[in-house]
Amino acid sequence: MDWEDLRHFLAVARGGSTLVAARTLRVSQTTTARRIAALEAALGLSLFERRPVGYRLTATGEALLPHAEAVERAATALEEGAAAARRQEGGTVRLTATEILASTILMPLLADLHEAHPAIRIELDTSDRLRDLAAGEAEVALRLWKEPAGAGLVARRIADDRWTVYASRDYAARHDVPRRRSELAGHVFVGGGEPAVWSIYQRWLAANGLEEAVAFHHNSSVGLLAAVRAGAGLAALPCIVAENAPDLIRCLPPMDMEARGIWLLTHERHRHQPRVRAVIDFLAPRLVALGRMV
């Protein structure tokens, strides 16, 4: 049984004919007659007496009319409830993320988020400073951390924060690509990134005696990625970022580094807000899927 058939049943019962019902529903009279026939076939019952002057409910139709009206009220209540939920879901969500995550994997997802939830407006903050979710400086955060710390934080580990060395396809065509750590010497490196990225990357360069190999340095992750993509040199990058960049190739297996994760966070005070819940529920499975690719 189709709810649309019930709508036509109610319209004919109230209008007395398929013509009046069709005008009310803004469809053809043929469509209304077909819907009534389909409902009667589905129920195995005759609901109307067809008369030259119109349609008249049978005794069975009269008995079922209140039930159809109850379905109509329930459907209307559902539609109104959904509309109210959409209104509550609308509004601004402040999302904070490191620049390297925001400018690569996050932006395509936010475009899809807008398609799915056009009433939600995202304010994206790529400051390197950790925003205080408890104080309301942001509602959602995507961060590289060992372990989230703070009262009331609600955290989901999206992926392991794995890093390794990448080169552009252009650089690989012009130079031998290192496949072992012992082959890194003699290659040009690009350094930089915002402090959260550079602190990890710089420690790795120092541990491998490659600090002097840095020929270019950018103080932003966008600049770092642009330089690597342009073929200026190699760089150690988060795998979740570089593996999803078709113009970059992995040189070495992921490094042995301090255990860190990529976390999607909110605070207990925000988690039940419909717009915040919608953002987290949309982003989490997609970010987890990206993490599995590395």
List keywords for this structure.
single chain, 3 domains, D-Maltodextrin-Binding Protein, domain 2, alpha/beta, three-stranded antiparallel β-sheet, 10 helices, Arc Repressor Mutant, subunit A, 294 residues
Layout of secondary structure:
Layout: H1 3-15, H2 18-25, H3 29-43, E1 48-51, E2 54-57, H4 59-89, E3 91-97, H5 99-116, E4 120-125, E5 140-145, E6 153-160, E7 163-168, H6 169-174, E8 189-192, H7 195-207, E9 214-218, H8 221-229, E10 235-238, H9 239-242, E11 248-250, E12 261-267, H10 274-292
Helix pairs in contact: 1-2, 1-3, 1-4, 2-3, 5-10
Domain HTH lysR-type: 1-58
Family: Belongs to the LysR transcriptional regulatory family.
InterPro entries: LysR-type_TF_proteobact-type, LysR_HTH_N, LysR_subst-bd, WH-like_DNA-bd_sf, WH_DNA-bd_sf
Report on this structure.
This protein has 294 residues and is of the alpha/beta class. It has 3 domains: 3-87, Orthogonal Bundle (Arc Repressor Mutant, subunit A), CATH 1.10.10; 90-160 and 260-292, Periplasmic binding protein-like II (D-Maltodextrin-Binding Protein, domain 2, 3-Layer(aba) Sandwich), CATH 3.40.190; 163-250, Periplasmic binding protein-like II (D-Maltodextrin-Binding Protein, domain 2). The protein contains 10 helices and 12 strands. The protein has helices at 3-15, 18-25, 29-43, 59-89, 99-116, 169-174, 195-207, 221-229, 239-242, 274-292, and strands spanning 48-51, 54-57, 91-97, 120-125, 140-145, 153-160, 163-168, 189-192, 214-218, 235-238, 248-250, 261-267. Strands 4-3-5-12-6 form a 5-stranded mixed β-sheet. Strands 10-7-11 form a 3-stranded antiparallel β-sheet. β8, α7 (195-207) and β9 form a beta-alpha-beta unit. α1 packs across α3 (29-43). It starts with a helix and ends with a helix. The mean pLDDT is 90. It comes from Sphingomonas corticis. Residues 1-58 form the HTH lysR-type domain.
